[in-house]
Amino acid sequence: MARLLPAPRDALLAQAHVRRFAPADALLRQGATDRHAYLILAGDVAVHVIDSSGIDAMLAVRRRGDIVGELAALTGEPRSATVVAMTRVTAGVITASALTNVLTTYPTAAWELVRTQAHRLDWANRRRVDFVSRRATARVARVLADLAHEIGSGNEQPIRVELSQRDIASIVGMALNTAENALRSLAHHGYIERRYRAVLIVDLAGLAEFADWDRDNP
């Protein structure tokens, strides 16, 4: 939604009220039946799903300009995921009626929402393909390259990815020790540096080449 034209973006923000969240606060909870969405104005949030066995899996990170909770707001179905603040977060609360009004009034906003959903589906599909076709280290490298592309500004490096090793393991879909070994290997090659609850990408070009990742066709 960060690519919204000024008119629909301003209309959406005009109907939103601002809330602030501390790290670890839940913005949305899986299974809840409330009907509103959030437009992230500052900070990062993590999307989690808890399966029937109680395992908590981190699926994605959303950042400034992203909208979360829009599907439940539009369909009225229970929420499919929990969204938790990773940092201090400022977000605009958007009611279901306000979201519907903006999407109806501004077709470009509806089109951008479709593009956002398509991008998220593509991300999930790439993770599934990687799971069956690539080795563990390449899978981690491809996720880091994707995240760096979303976070990075121009060619400035290093790019800091604020995720723990456990978070990365969950997003990629592998055991923690496997992710640790993969990150250790990428650090040994000089592509990344490991930090406390973060990864610094110091050679994005090398990482992308290693992962067979291309920004136009990841």
UniProtKB/TrEMBL annotation:
Signal peptide: none annotated. CDD domains: CAP_ED. Keywords: DNA-binding, Transcription, Transcription regulation. It comes from Pseudonocardia kunmingensis. Residues 134-205 form the HTH crp-type domain. It holds the Pfam family HTH_Crp_2. GO terms for molecular function: DNA binding; DNA-binding transcription factor activity. This is CRP-like cAMP-binding protein.
